[in-house]
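Example 3.2
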Amino acid sequence: SIHGPALDEVAWPVDADPGLLEAVGVACEGLEAAPQIFAAGDVVADKPRTLLQAVYSGVLAGAAAAGEPGQIERSRRPRR
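Structure, written as tokens:
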């Protein structure tokens, strides 16, 4: 394209390496990409791109956006 990079060459996975479209992500501090801007799922950088991780981060980000981030926390109790 004359308006940007030719994504057809680098955007899609090759062998086991992810393509550029799969490798980008939003840098976050905890759940926030910026103050009061929450990110979850595949958009977050350096997180596993799995269904369970996406659901988990979505629930936490939704609770934080609703103003109740203290109500849903990761369990820190030791397993029995």
